[in-house]
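anyone seen this seq b4? input:
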Amino acid sequence: MAYQYMASTGTAANDDAENYPMSNVVYPGHNDVMCGRGGGTNNHIGNVRFRQLVQGHKLRYLAAPKIDKPRVAREVVQIWRSLDPPGRFLTKTK
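predicted toks r here
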């Protein structure tokens, strides 16, 4: 089973396609968020760490006016993608 990077706007600040591929990821790393449902994804270390990051920004998000909420969310994703190795959001390939 392999995973691929979820396409979205923007890229990781320190993307290195050779060392951190965006498709055919067989072994997701500690900075990879595995998208999906169930215990396998919920308990993956990357998902646990990402939820901790989100928790750290939750009060700021809740206090932000509606127009600023997307900016707070983008900042959290930007922080995740700027990690070393880069944080990635992966989905299962079929």
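The CA atoms of residues 3 and 62 lie 32 Å apart. The first strand starts at residue 3 and ends at 5. kinda curious what u guys think
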